[in-house]
Each structure stands twice: as structure tokens, then as C-alpha cells.
Batch of 3 targets.
Target 1
Amino acid sequence: MVVEGPQFLKLIVSETMAGAIIGKDGTKLGEFEMRSGCRLQLSAPGKYFPGTMDRICVLGGKLTNLENCMVLIVKLVCDIPGTTTTRMLKLAVPNSAVSMVIGHGGELVRRLCHETGCRINASMRMHNMQERLIILAGAHDALVRASLEVLRVIQEDPHLKEHIHFPYEDIELPLGAWAGPQAQVEDESVPLIHPSTVAQYSKRQLVEYLRKAAPLEILMRYSLFGSTQNAMKSQGAGKLADAVSETWRLRGGAMTEAVASSSSSSLARNAIDVII
């Protein structure tokens, strides 16, 4: 067991978010535990949840402690600068717990979305995985309400404790598998930009490209909603390059012919010209 209970929660967090939770020399992590009474532990750098490039963060303690900790985590998520107030949380829960959150005929999840003002979605089932992702998206208050409601619901699952672990031996999922085969992009016909050619494009071109070609998860993580001008101001060239690289990986770019040739670069540029 990674942490002691009696209640538990498993979050899936980006490397950036993991760093923010840990803080310099672990000081932030210690502060989280002291203020909430909850124990936290993160998977080691480079040890990712299958099918993602995100680390695993497990919480353990009494329900009140977990609730206190979730409030602090949501605040940390929402304090990350962005162009919109919408933020996202990902929870890994047993398959059986997902059914509890959805409810009969989807009744419970619809009620939770309505009452909390937060979007709540469950990923598809994955072969050899006994867990699924529940993704919450909304502004601060909505995220707090929804995360606490979901936290309480899944504690009723008798299998929850079995899944509070880090290792996933012999489980290999392609990057982006949780997003589904179409990765929730606005326009699949837009040619992918190879990461090595990012310097050829302006920030405006990259923002417009990402809005067409990037999966929803990337758009939310890099706060690429709202006006183009605000997105350009809030995201430096390095962050946009990271978003292009993630889009390339999640959309399966690495499985196509390796490097973008001058002709493929020209196709992508022509596509951007059409977009803008």
C-alpha cells in the first residue's frame, strides 16, 4: 500500500502539476499534508500512468482530510496562469466506481453536472486496465464542488483500495489512448506539424493550428481557449512548442514517416494559411 487510508483517491497529474505539489525540496508537499491531514505520494519522475505522460498522485486519510486536500489541489490547479478560468482534473478510479458515478441511465452524472456547474466525463474502457479516468473540467468553484462529490461517491466502492498503487507491470497503452481514436480534435484533416519545424511558424499560426489539431486535453492544459490575442500573450514560444510536441505524439505523428520534409512542412503551412 502506497499510503494509509481509510479513504483513498488517485489523481493523474502532469509533470508541471506534480512539481507544483512537491515544491522546492518537498516543502509544498509537506505543507499540503500538514494543512489537510492527508498523506500524499507521487510516482517517481518518468513513471507515468499507462497511455499518458502524467504521473500518479495518491491521497490517503480520513474523508475529511481528503476533502481538505482536494480543496488545496484545486486551488493550486486554478492558480496556474491561463487565458480562461476553465481548469481540469483527472481521477483514476476502478471500473466499478465509474458506474457508481454515472448512475442508472446516466442520471447521477447529469445531476452532478447540473448542480456543480462542472463538466464530468468518463473515459472508455481499456483492455487489461481495471481503471478508467474521470475527467472534471470547470472553473474553481465548480471543480471544488464536483471533485468533492465524486470523491464521496467512489468511497462506496469496495474495490477502491485495491487500486491504490503505482506499478503497472505488463500493461502498455499507446500514448493518447484515453482520448479515444479521434483524440477529440476539431479538424482531423489539418496536417500535423512536426516538432522540429515549430520555429518556422509565428505564435499566431501555432495557436490557430493547435485549436484545430490538438486534443481537447492539450487545449485545456495550455489554456488555448478565449481570444487568440490572449492565448498568444499567456503562452510563450516554448510552451507552444511543447503543445505542438504533445499533439504530435498524441495524434500518432511518431508512427508516420519520421521527420517532416519540406513538402510536409509546406502542407502544414498551407493548412495554417487556410485556418487564419
Note: The first strand starts at residue 7 and ends at 13.
Target 2
Amino acid sequence: MKAAVTEKSVLKVPKPEGLDAQDRPVKVLVVDDELIVRKLVTQVLKSAGYEIVGEAGDGKRAVEMFRLRRPDIVTMDVQMPIMDGLEALEQILQVYSKAVVVMLTNRQEKELVTKIIKAGAKDYIVKPIDRKLILAKLRKVRGISY
């Protein structure tokens, strides 16, 4: 005899954390001059349900892509060619003052971290990239706690 399927017997699958309150993927622009770092960040975020709307290898291209794609969040390296991440952050904030940018850096000096936050970044991540850390930082800047 078959057991009846009830609402209580169906397993609830948690929704991916990369979805917003309306169950739409949060759009992210990934910016880093190192291809391997961009691919790693992209892979981590996609696996959590985020939508990658673009990748850039320098700050100038990041600003252009921000204007075109209007991502919900930008992850951006500090040190890049053509235009560094801090200058790109400043220009992105001129385009949209409420932009959510999380900076990536190889350095953890207090002076640099202070400069990043004063420039308007919502948070920062010290490389190497760690899956749990990047997802936690994005939850934090989105105001979500798990």
C-alpha cells in the first residue's frame, strides 16, 4: 500500500542564498585583474545562486560594465592596471551613490583597510579567497544573517 504524500512529509529544500526576497538572483559584477581569482569568485557565487552579470580585469572596464549592467553587488580588487579599484569605486559611487562594493585585497594593513572603507566600500576581503568568507561577506552587505 502506498503512503500518502502529505505537506509535512515533503522535504523542504532551502532556497539558494544568492536569491533576493522576490526569489530573483542577486546580480554581481566580478572585477579582478587575475583571471583565476575572477573565475574562483564567479564559481563560488554561481554555486550559491548569484547571477554573474559580468567580469572585468581593470577598473575602467568595471565602471563601464557597472553603468551598463547595474549589478546589485560588485566584488573588486584594489590593485589593478589601467585604473585601480579605489578610483573605480569612486567613479561607481558617482554613477550610483548607493552601490554595494566589496573590495578584494592582498594586504591587510590598517591604513589600507581604513582607506577602502572611507572610500565607500561596504566591506573588504583579504585574499586568498575563501568560499565561506566571501559568502558571509555578501550576506553581511545584503543585511542577511544565517
Note: The radius of gyration is 18 Å.
Target 3
Amino acid sequence: MTFEEIIAQDNAATFGGRLIVNTLRGRYIESAVTLATPTIRRMLPVDCWGWDACDPRGLRLEVKHAAALQAWPSQIQKCSFKIAGRREYFDPTIGGKMIPTQLTRYAQIHIFAHHPRDDGSADQREIDQWDFYLVATGELPEMTGKPGQAISLLDVRHLARRRVGISELGEAVGRLQKLIDPVPLSELRR
């Protein structure tokens, strides 16, 4: 048994069906967003940075996802996105430590990805079936300090003002990047 065989089997199990399990869908969407947006890079391999991607200036992006259909048997979901603030982030540049901060959202841009199809045509592996909404983090509702704080899809649509497809995402992110200055992490530390 080789590493390649294990990965091939895992990928077939993970992405072999039309619906992607919720815990892995985020990785798929984050990869699609960074591939569609050449000015940002994904924060790999660490999964606890506190944001998902950043640009060369240090502007941070958070990617959230939701889908009308789930991989497990369930009813059609009323979609919402978690937007709770955090109190620490991972910094590998100083020995891989968790850095305490004030309650904050580390990203300056939130990208909300939604898969709206709820019928037999739904295939979450088809990136053209996804809708993307960009919101400057400062436009989001104030943080409550509750771990499960969320925003509804309807509120995201209102704040974003327009939906973009994957082919328009890079340009839309580029426009928003020009309007927002990065916030140095040193300003967030306690």
C-alpha cells in the first residue's frame, strides 16, 4: 500500500458523490477561492491561524461556506454562517505559539460561499454552482462574544449587495482589496 493509493481512495470517498461532507467542504472552497484569486495565498498547512488567506500586504481573508443540501440525510438547510470573534491566533513565525488577543475577527474581508441547489442537479464539486458574497469585516454585525454567533444568508446577501460567480471572484476581491488597509496583528495583541 502506497501513500498515493491511500490518497486516491480517500479522495474517491470524499469527493466521489455530489455532496461534500461539511467538515471537508471548507477545504474545497478555500482552495477554489485562492485559485480564483491570484493576489491571495492560502494559509497552509496550519488550520488554526484565525484566517484562511492573505495578500502580500497582510490583508487577511476569512472564507465561510454553507449549502442547502448536506451529505447526511437531512432536510433542506436554512443557511447561516458562523462569524464569532476569536481571542487567539496561531503564529508559526514565533515558535508556533497561540497568541492571545482582544476579542476580534482577524480578517478584513469575509468571503461567504453558498451552494443554493436543493434538487437532483446539486453537485457541490461543480464550483460554477456556488455563489460568492464579499463583505468587508467592518460591515458585519458587532461581536457578541458568543461562540456560535452566526449571520443568515439573507443578511449576507444584503451586506454584500451582489452575488459573484467563481469566474468573477478574483476581480471582485481585487476591487475590495484596494479599499481596505490591513490591520497589523500587533494592534490586536493583548
Note: The beta strands are 41-42, 53-54, 60-67, 80-82, 86-91, 97-104, 109-115, 131-136, 150-152.
